[in-house]
Design goal:
single chain, 313 residues, alpha/beta, Spore Coat Polysaccharide Biosynthesis Protein SpsA, Chain A, 2 domains, transmembrane helix, Glycosyltransferase_2, cell inner membrane, Glycosyltransferase family 2 protein, glycosyltransferase activity
Length: 313
């Protein structure tokens, strides 16, 4: 099979039919009839699954992977890549903010530059001022702490060679951050500037964005732990210096230390730092706990395929 188009479904009922039409049109222009469209239902609460199954019954190119519950966008994407069989794999979101027709320009660049991956980047991040500002902070903070050269304003849409996808799915992590895995997998990756549409509604709440930031940094960087050690050493040195000053002052000047306010402020400061540091260590321990249990990061309830319909327990 020459091409696989992979997309996830979550609250996608209003987009799935139009996405199928446009993705099919782009695939047929590129490879004729030799393609598949893999739709991963990530526990969507609307009628996305029913609509996708109807498409699979009417179009033998459509494969629907139904997850047993909502596992999250990144885990659903990795599951879709594991089910893709094409020599090239085009991954994108199904909400039509990313245009399926990008497949043609991505493929042209991949052929011209002999690259393994062509991915989209926005010239300017979509959204309001706060969303753009937080996005810039995220990329700068991630690069600073992880040392990975992740491009600014990267989007999901990317065309990948078979050997790159095979290398990517070798990562067997339980706490996935796809943008980081895309970078560390390596190979020859090229960017293409795109114009991403913007919708008012989004399934990524502020809480999910903060959780993603914490997950991405702790998955690819030990800098917070090193920082804790550095701050602890600095506090120890300052405390030792101040204690020496008090002892010398008491011995030579017979002036006992005083100051209830400064004492309490120091206690609250150190107490807060200790609690914060224990929390950071706890996050890393929680990630280790999640990884060592070796639980599957997704569970597939059913795979709908016109040629063969099978259940996976």
């Amino acid at each position: 099979m020459k091409l696989s188009i992979v997309a996830t479904l979550y609250r996608s009922a209003k987009f799935v039919e139009e996405f199928h039409r446009r993705a099919s049109q782009a695939a047929q222009q590129l490879v004729g009839d030799d393609y598949e469209i893999v739709l991963v239902n990530d526990g969507s609460p609307d009628s996305s699954l029913e609509l996708a199954v109807q498409l699979s019954e009417a179009d033998h190119h459509v494969v629907v992977v139904d997850l047993s519950r909502n596992f999250g966008h990144h885990k659903a994407m990795m599951t879709g890549l594991r089910h893709a069989r094409g020599e090239r794999v085009f991954l994108l979101d199904s909400d039509l903010e990313e245009d399926p027709a990008w497949l043609l320009s991505f493929s042209e660049q991949m052929e011209r530059e002999k690259a393994d991956v062509v991915y989209g980047v926005q010239q300017q991040r979509k959204g309001k001022h706060f969303e753009r500002w937080t996005g810039q902070v995220f990329y700068k903070l991630f690069r600073f702490l992880s040392g990975l050269d992740m491009p600014d304003n990267i989007v999901v849409a990317r065309l990948m060679s078979r050997r790159y996808v095979d290398a990517l799915i070798q990562h067997d992590e339980r706490e996935l951050f796809m943008a980081g895995l895309w970078v560390i997998t390596g190979f020859d990756q090229r960017a293409q500037t795109i114009d991403k549409r913007s919708r008012d509604e989004t399934t990524y709440t502020l809480g999910k964005k903060v959780a993603q930031l914490v997950n991405s940094i702790t998955a690819f960087s030990s800098a917070p732990l090193v920082g804790i050690f550095g701050v602890g050493c600095a506090i120890f040195l300052l405390s030792a210096a101040y204690t020496s000053f008090l002892v010398v002052n008491w011995l030579l000047l017979a002036s006992p230390p005083s100051g209830y306010t400064s004492l309490m402020a120091s206690i609250w400061l150190l107490g807060g730092l200790i609690i914060a540091f224990v929390g950071v260590v706890g996050i890393y321990l929680a990630k280790i706990y999640s990884e060592v249990k070796q639980r599957p990061y997704t569970i597939v309830r059913h795979v709908y395929r016109q040629a063969e319909t099978r259940s996976i327990e």
